[in-house]
Amino acid sequence: MYDKENMLAISSLNIAGRIEHMSDEQIEKYFQMLESFVDNFPPREEKLRAFLEGKDYDSFSKYLDIIWEMLTKIHADDMAKMCVELIESLKEINHEKIEAATTELLSNISMMSVDIQMLKHSYQKNRQNTADNQNKDGAEQSQNKEFNILAVDDSSVSLEILKTLLSDIKEYKITCLSSGMLAMRYIQHHRIDLYILDIEMPDMDGYELASKIKELGHTAPIIFLTASAVREAVEKAMAVGVSDFIIKPISKPQVHERIKKYLY
User: Fold this and answer.
1) Who's near 250: CB < 8 A, 6+ residues apart?
2) CA-based max dimension of the chain
3) CA distances to 68, 108, 206, 258 from 223, in Å
4) Cis bond before residue 253 (omega within 30° of 0)
5) Domain 123-263 class, CATH top level
6) Range list for CATH 1.20.120 in the chain
7) For residue 173, which phi and psi values (nearest 5 degrees)?
8) Average pLDDT, the chain
9) Are 247 and 114 spatial neighbours (Cβ–Cβ below 8 Å)?
10) Is the dihedral of CA 184, 214, 140, 126 positive or negative?
11) What per-residue confidence (pLDDT) applies to 136?
12) Which SS3 state, helix, strand or coil, does residue 175 take?
């Protein structure tokens, strides 16, 4: 189930020089370590954020050291290095800079956690279904290279950020809607190549909207916008047919990387 190719696809794990020499038993043991990380990271993240908010830099540094050790064990070397750099920055206390660096670090770790969890699910199957669907749509989509992206979020700020981040890709035509009800009406008359859905919405949350999209027979990939990488949220999303995740706060490299996996 947890083959080498899928593990190597998680670029944040620096295992390319190691995994080729692992036996199946060692790979299984390594994946158990990854699973342990997924379960143990969220409470550490919560504590770290609380210490930062309270400006308790001593406790913040100690918890950051714990996270560094966790990352080192699973060979997430680049993120472990970010922890070291963040600890070093505490010598010259600038709360805004520390907060920004912490946000970037935790966002990257959460994205890695999501990728690890998706190894257990139908990630490869979803991607194959997407490829098959695009092939069925015929050469028109490939030749025109215009992809219709539907973004649904009740936050106008998030939608504006998405539009801005994708504005430099001429092949992307992004439509932004503020509710699940509006989205349901829209997709009845338009072809969508990829959905980006927020989870927390008042009239219809992302889980319900994703379920309804699938019930209508739409096979385009669905990407969830979320601030949480906890196992329960990821498993619930995968159960309703979600293909991938973008972790808030939204960053340009992450958005482009996630979308390109499904449209090219």
Assistant:
1) 158, 161, 162, 165, 225
2) 59
3) 29, 17, 10, 8
4) no
5) alpha beta
6) 4-118
7) -110, 110
8) 87
9) yes
10) positive
11) 44
12) strand
With contact defined as beta carbons under 8 Å apart, do 127 and 119 qualify?
no
Q: Provide φ and ψ at 151, rounded to 5°.
A: -110, 130
Phi/psi at 137 (nearest 5 deg)?
A: -65, -10
Q: Which residues make beta-bridge pairs with 244? A: 223
**What pTM does this model have?**
0.82
Judge contact between 146 and 259, C-beta under 8 A: no
Q: Which residues of the chain have pLDDT under 70?
A: 1-3, 120-144
Per-residue pLDDT tens digits for 219-251: 999 999 988 888 998 999 999 999 999 998 888
Q: Which helix (H) or strand (E) holds 226?
A: strand 222-226
Query: What is the CATH architecture assignment of 4-118?
Result: Up-down Bundle (1.20)
pLDDT for 192 equals 95
**Residue type for 162, please?**
L
Q: Residues, the chain, total? A: 264
Supply 202's token pair.
């008042």
What is the chain's Cα-based Rg?
A: 20
Residues forming CATH 3.40.50.2300 domain(s) in the chain: 123-263
